């Protein structure tokens, strides 16, 4: 699936702008700055396909990428970011929630969680929304290159405890580092398997 070209299709700012729901779709959700866009770049082997940045709130639209004409890969705006104007944040959050609960072809949502911190309250809010919408989701821990082993154990514990509370969650989580390449092949295989 990722061997060929993955291309940017469009950035969407309202539900009416979504492309036709005509193929398998996976999306990347998570707190601002957790590494969603960077992970998409790592998966596709392209440095700057999805725009990543040190500044939280970088991705402000729902960005659609096509892979092998069979899948959409979707980069979402982050949540839990307080430093943007309230009206702007509310607009993104509303769109994010509408998308996550109203996309019939969404096969799996990947919920990204920083390996240094573990699941937070805002992450659980998104998980609850996915439960209600019956969207299967899987947690991807990011930035494992930045965490000490003892801290990782702690945040894995927090995250597993959170997952146990959410019926739509896959019990297995994926450990990744976009920097070091950890977990990238595993994630590619998971996505390719979602026909
Ligand atoms: P928003 O679009 O603002 O929601 O953020 P995002 O989740 O898309 O995060 P983004 O991919 O822009 O990455 C945020 C910062 O984290 C950037 O400076 C990345 O270089 C860094 N980053 C992402 N993944 C990793 C990783 O695996 N390891 C390390 N060390 N840094 C990472
Ligand atoms: Mg982003």
TrEMBL record:
- Record has Cell division as a keyword: yes
GO terms in the biological process aspect are: division septum assembly
- All copies of domain EngB-type G, residue ranges: 22-195
Recall the GO molecular function terms of this protein's record.
GTP binding; metal ion binding
Q: Which residues cross the membrane?
A: none
This chain belongs to which protein, by name? Answer: Probable GTP-binding protein EngB
Signal sequence: where? none
Source species: Limimaricola pyoseonensis
